[in-house]
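Data availability (excerpt). The following record was deposited with the supplementary files.
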Amino acid sequence: MQYELFSDADFRQETPFAGRALCLLGSFRASTKGLQQKLQALGIEIKQGVSRNVHYAVLGKDVPAASLEQLRQLAYNGYNPKVLSENDLECILRGSYSQYAVPVQISKDLHLTLQHYLDSRLSYEGGLNPLYTKELYLAPDIQPELYQMLGNRGIYANAYIDDTTNVIVISGSSLERLQAGQTDDNLRYIEQQYNQSRAQAFRFVMTSEGELLAWLNKAS
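Predicted structure:
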């Protein structure tokens, strides 16, 4: 009887790509079907499109704009599949694994930017109370007098983020750091709470201490 020293399954388990998922976007010099078969031999699952369950996204020529937008949205919400080129694929298929390996467990890793703040910025326009029925988080470097001012208007605020938090209030110094492309402990706390939550998209409403104070003083 003839035995195989290593089966295909053994080979797949020994590569750093076993259990990972990959999508091919656009056109490639090599046959797409051929690439898929070679990658599957490494234990990679081929996906038809971009999603938060993809470990790798390989960009060829003429990638559809919709796929690029999906990648941008994934990164915006803290999901960051490793982006590869066809040249990267050729290196992988030649056995150069180490620089391309990623953990099998996909986790969120959101880093707050000024764009997150601008996209989710609370609007104070109009005559209605924009904080009605909302629960606020006040960053610890915000002046404590704000709690009393909010309480006087029947608005609930606390010093932690949980599943009931609707609005995040950051200090002026944190906003300045976002504007400069920097971070601080308070911004990292917001990132951590989102990354550890079950949320799949960053949906907090955000405002700054200065904007909130201006509205409270105007509305009083």
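Summary of structural features: Strands lie at 21-25, 45-47, 56-59, 82-85, 135-138, 156-158, 167-170, 205-208.
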